[in-house]
Each structure stands twice: as C-alpha cells, then as structure tokens.
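Tip: read the tokens left to right.
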C-alpha cells in the first residue's frame, strides 16, 4: 500500500479552505452536476466537503483514500481500486494526482477509466506563474488577460487526455 502524502494538519481551515479552494470546489460541483450522475466516486476526498454537498442533491457518492485518518468510505489506493468495471457514472480526483509520480498518475488515469461508465473529472493545481493584466477601455469594456511567464511556457510534464472513456491516455511531453 502507498503511504499517505499529506498529514491531517494539511486540512486546517485557514490553510486549506482559502477562497481559491472554494471557487475550485464550485466548479467541480458544477461539472459533476452537469453529468447528471447516479453514482459518483471521489478519490482523495480530503475533508469530504464534496460528499456532503452532493448528498444534499441526493447523489450517491463513495470516497476512496489511502489515509484511514480521513475516514473515507473505502481505504484503498487509486492504483488498486477495488471496484468492478464501469461501476460509477462519474469518477473524480481533485487536487490529488499531483501527489503521485508522473508514471503512477498515468496508471491512475487508466484505473479511473476502468471503473468509470461515463465521465472522469480531474482537477490539478495550476502552479504556473502568470503575468496578469487587467484594464478598462472606454467604449470597449473591461479586459482581463493572463499569460504564462515566457520562461515557463513549456513545462516538463503535461498531461493530455485523449479519449479517456475509450481507455486511451496520451503523453505529450516528459
């Protein structure tokens, strides 16, 4: 079994639940609800905020994590999901895959595709440095632009998912 990647103290309110995390959570829920799932699997649930919110919408959700201290429904690794093929309409991994080595993350995509009937939703932290420009032009309106720093345009690892439901994953760069 893999060892846990973060301590329970990682989830303290002021450190973990900042405004960007709440905004990310809103988008994650919006994506899930758009799929109209009847069963959801969340891998790496953290504080189980997503589970609590989806339960308000009567959407059955199961959680999986390698850390029993987080009290997931099932203690297991994403690399060894104990479910039969196509068990869930939607499989989610939010802010979790970056804790795995690159090759294991690719394997995790395959494992998620195996247990997903329809949809896989993944969120990774956007850690690239940006230059942000915001300005207002009379008669044209407000503009907000974000561009990566030139020296960071080509990161070492890029995840590209092609035909994930068709069970294929393509690696663009290493």
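Filled-in amino acids:
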């Amino acid at each position: 079994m893999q060892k846990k990647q973060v301590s329970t103290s990682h989830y303290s309110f002021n450190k973990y639940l900042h405004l960007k995390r709440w905004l990310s959570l809103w988008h994650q829920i919006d994506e899930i609800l758009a799929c109209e799932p009847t069963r959801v699997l969340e891998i790496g649930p953290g504080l189980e905020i997503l589970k609590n919110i989806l339960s308000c919408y009567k959407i059955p959700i199961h959680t999986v994590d390698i850390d029993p201290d987080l009290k997931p429904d099932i203690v297991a690794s994403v690399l060894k999901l104990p479910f039969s093929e196509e068990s869930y309409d939607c499989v989610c991994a939010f802010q979790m895959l970056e804790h795995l080595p690159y090759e294991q993350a690719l394997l995790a995509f395959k494992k998620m595709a195996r247990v997903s009937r329809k949809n896989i939703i993944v969120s990774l932290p956007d850690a690239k440095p940006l230059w942000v420009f915001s300005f207002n032009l009379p008669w044209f309106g407000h503009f907000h632009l974000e561009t990566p720093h030139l020296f960071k345009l080509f990161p070492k690892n890029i995840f590209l998912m092609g035909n994930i439901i068709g069970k294929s994953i393509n690696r663009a760069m290493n």
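Confidence is low (pLDDT under 50) at residues 151-174. Helices lie at 13-16, 19-35, 49-56, 102-115.
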